[in-house]
Amino acid sequence: MRNLSLYIRVVSDKIGFVEILVIIKQSLSALYRKLRILLAGCDLVDVKTIIKLFSVFFKIGAFTFGGGYAILPVIQKEVVDKNKWLTEEEVLDVFAVSQSIPGVISINSAIYIGRKVAGIPGAVSSGLGMILPSFIVILAIAPLIINLRDNEIVGSFFNGIRASASALILLAAIKMSKSAIREKWGIAVAAASFVLVVFFDVHAVWVIIGGAAAGIAYGLFDKRKRSCK
User: Fold this and answer.
1) Partner of 57 for a Cys bridge, out of 129, 159, 191, 192, CB 3.0 to 4.6 A?
2) How far apart, in whole angstroms, are the C-alpha atoms of residue 90 and residue 109?
3) CB-based contacts of 90: which residues, under 8 Å, 6+ apart?
C-alpha cells in the first residue's frame, strides 16, 4: 500500500488534470481503433452481441464497488435475468473457474462469459468493458486520492457501500444455492466447504478443487450403483 501511495503521489506531481484527460482520450481512441479491427470480420448479429457485452460489463465495472464477489448479484441480474446469456448454474461455474485461476475474479468472469457468449471477440469486448471504468476513474482521481484517503466522509461513504454490497452478495448466494444444491450430497459438500473456509481458513482454490473431486467421486459411485441394478 505504501508503494502504491508513493506511485500515485509521483503520478499526481508529474501530470495534471488536463494531461489525464488527454491520456483518457488517447486510450479511448486506441480502444475504438482496436474494436473496429476486431469487429471487421464479424457479421451484424455478432457485432450487436459484442457491443452489448461491452456495454453490460462497462456498466458492471462502473457501478460495482467492493470488488471480488460484489459483482455476483450484478452479473446475475444482467447476464441471467436480463439478457438470458447464461443460467444460474453456469454463472456459478464461471465464478468457480474464475476463482481458481490467476487474476482478478471480476475480469476473469467477464472474459469467461464473453468467450462463452461470442467467442474471442466477445471475451475481448467484455474484458475491456470491465477494465475501462476503473482505468478511467483511477486516472481521474490520482491527483486527489492522497488527500481523500483519510477523509472521514469518504471513509463513511465506502463503509456504507461495503455493507450494502455484502447484503446483495448474500442474497445472490442464497438464490443461486437453490438451483445448485438439489441433493443431500450437495448439501454435505456445501456445509463442509463452509466449515473449511470459516473455521480452518482453507484457501478457496483448495475448497473448489475438493468440491470438484467430491462431485466426480459421487458421480462415479452413482453411475456404478445404477449399473448394478
Assistant:
1) 129
2) 11
3) 116
This prediction's pTM: 0.61
- Number of independent structural domains in the chain: 2
Same domain, yes or no: 84 and 157? yes
Nearest-CA neighbor of 175 among 81, 82, 66, 99?
Answer: 81
Query: Would you write out the chain's pLDDT as a tens digit for each of its 229 residues?
Result: 445 444 445 444 555 555 666 666 676 676 666 666 655 555 555 778 888 999 999 999 888 776 667 788 888 889 999 999 998 888 888 887 887 777 788 889 999 999 999 888 888 889 989 988 888 887 777 666 666 667 777 777 777 877 777 777 777 677 667 666 777 778 888 888 889 988 988 887 888 888 888 888 888 887 777 777 6
Could you tell me if 23 and 119 lie in one domain? yes
Query: CA-CA distances (angstroms) from residue 134 to 65, 103, 211?
Result: 10, 15, 33
What is the rounded distance in angstroms from the CA atom of residue 91 to the CA atom of residue 72? Answer: 9
Contact 118, 46 (CB under 8 A): yes
Angle at 165 between CA 159 and CA 171, to 5 degrees: 145
Q: Where are the beta strands (DSSP E) in the chain?
A: none
Give the position of cell 463503509: 159
Expressed as residue numbers, the domain containing 87 is 2-180
Tell me how many degrees the CA angle 105-110-115 measures, rounded to the nearest 5.
125
Where does a domain end: 165, 180, 195? 180
